[in-house]
Design a protein that fits this description.
Layout (H helix, E strand, L loop, with lengths): L12 H121 L5 H110 L11 E7 L6 E3 L2 E2 L3 H15 L5 E7 L3 E2 L9 E2 L3 H13 L9 H8 L9 E6 L18 H20 L10 E7 L4 H13 L4 E4 L1
Parallel strand pairs: 1-4, 1-7, 7-8, 8-9
Antiparallel strand pairs: 2-3, 4-5, 4-6
Helix pairs in contact: 1-2, 3-4, 5-6
Length: about 450
């Protein structure tokens, strides 16, 4: 009997059913994820609207507080003016009191002089009466007495004029004294009014201060409500932002996280080459833009630093050993890209020195390192101790193992409650698969991710 050979079937109708079911599941999962994202985005927009309304209320209260501050300042100015007026009034009162005292002394002196003159006049009148009574005197004596009487009359007239003058002076002094008393009373009344105004101003000041206290309490209540609302919405807004950022993220496979971040950028000579014989003028600018794009996509970043490495480390942005605080992620990213593009790559790849420098920031809160390179380490500590001549592969292999051991056992080893630093790597236009394997292994060992760009 002849042997019959059946042709093996590679693809049949049952496999089509399986593929269709799998495709349907993928579409269903995508639709569920899309609807969830839309729901979260709508919820986030609603929360944002509520936050805007709260901010409008806050600005309104701020405006009212500012108005109250202006009113309080005006009240203080009025209080100062009234205080100055009261001081002037008190000075005028003191001056008037001194003047009244002087007038009183003058009056007392004139009154004493008038009393003395009146006594002298009474005495002369008595003498004149005595002379008139002595009518039996002789004619000679009478003539003498008449002369003496005439002299006395003249003297009496003079004394009466003096007395009249003294009386007028006394009346003037009295009038001036009354005027001074009246002025004192008016000044006292003005002082009383000033004190009354000051009391009114103080009551008004207390009222303004009370209103400001009430407004401050309302402001604190609103701020507390806003803080509570922000706390409730923070996770929703963050997730919405992450969903939006994920749609534009070109670094698939890398979790873009980190608050205090170091960018380790390889600036060896190969960063301007596609291979050993082919120059690529676009490679280094792409590396610079990649650093900027990652920085711009880190929504939680607060501080960062950029370390360039070849034969040694460099700080292109300055501030060596210290963080650079993020002010505006977009503007900071543009500035970083512009400054990196001015640098010309050159030299070997001493990745050891770069990691040693980067882990100096661990005590300052370093949580993530982004390594951007196109090759294996070919310089630095870790060379094998041997008299034999080693090829490049042996050198890079030994340096790579030494670096990974140093990272795992010392630099990034567990230290109490301090978390390990996450290391993400990005490979650029590398020829050897060993480069990708090395960067991938290093990221995997330190809770990070690797992506290769060509």
């Amino acid at each position: 009997m002849a042997n019959r050979h059946r042709i093996p079937t590679i693809f049949n109708i049952y496999m089509v059913d399986v593929l269709c079911c799998a495709l349907g599941c993928v579409i269903l999962l995508w639709q569920v994820s899309f609807q969830e994202a839309e729901s979260k985005t709508a919820e986030a927009n609603s929360r944002v609207d509520q936050l805007k309304d709260a901010q409008l209320s806050l600005r309104s209260l701020d405006s009212e507080v500012d108005n109250l501050k202006i009113a309080l300042e005006a009240t203080k100015n009025k209080e100062v003016q009234v205080t100055l007026l009261l001081d002037d009034t008190r000075k005028s009162l003191d001056a008037a009191a001194k003047l009244a005292l002087v007038r009183k002394k003058d009056y007392d002196a004139l009154n004493e002089t008038h009393i003395l003159a009146q006594a002298a006049l009474d005495k002369l009148r008595t003498q004149f009466t005595d002379l008139e009574a002595k009518t039996n005197l002789s004619s000679a004596e009478l003539a003498e007495k008449i002369k003496a009487n005439a002299a006395l009359v003249l003297k009496l007239a003079d004394i009466e004029r003096i007395a009249d003058a003294l009386g007028k002076d006394k009346l003037d002094a009295l009038a001036k004294l009354k005027s001074a008393d009246l002025r004192v009373r008016l000044i006292e009344d003005s002082a009383t009014d000033a004190q009354r105004k000051i009391a009114d101003l103080l009551r008004e000041k207390d009222a303004v201060a009370s209103r400001m206290t009430t407004s401050a309490k309302d402001l604190e209540t609103l701020q507390s409500a806003m803080a509570k609302m922000s706390a409730e919405n923070l996770e929703t807004l963050r997730r919405a932002r992450q969903i939006e950022a994920a749609a534009e993220n070109r670094f698939a496979g890398i979790t873009l996280t980190g608050r205090k971040v170091v960018f380790m950028v390889d600036m060896s000579g190969s960063m301007e080459l596609t291979d050993e014989a082919t120059a690529d003028p676009d490679k280094w600018p792409i590396v610079c833009e990649t650093v900027a794009r990652i920085l711009q996509s880190l929504f939680d970043v607060t501080d960062y630093q950029v370390i360039l490495f070849s034969d040694k480390v460099r700080y292109p942005l300055g501030n060596e050993g210290k963080w650079i605080s993020v002010r505006d992620r977009v503007q900071d990213a543009k500035s970083v890209a512009a400054q990196l593009k001015q640098i010309k790559p050159q030299g070997p790849t001493n990745m050891y020195a770069a990691f040693e420098e980067a882990f100096r920031y661990r005590v300052q809160g370093l949580d993530t390192i982004y390594v951007l390179s196109d090759g294996l380490p070919n310089d630095g500590p870790g060379r094998p101790v041997t008299n034999a001549k080693l090829d490049d592969n042996a050198i890079t292999s030994a340096l790579s193992k030494h670096l990974r051991a140093k990272l795992k056992n010392e630099w990034n080893a567990a230290a109490g409650n301090a978390p390990r630093v996450r290391i993400n790597t990005v490979g650029f236009f590398y020829e050897s698969p060993d480069v990708g394997a090395f960067l991938w292994a290093m990221s995997r060992e330190h809770n990070g991710s690797f992506v290769g760009l060509r």
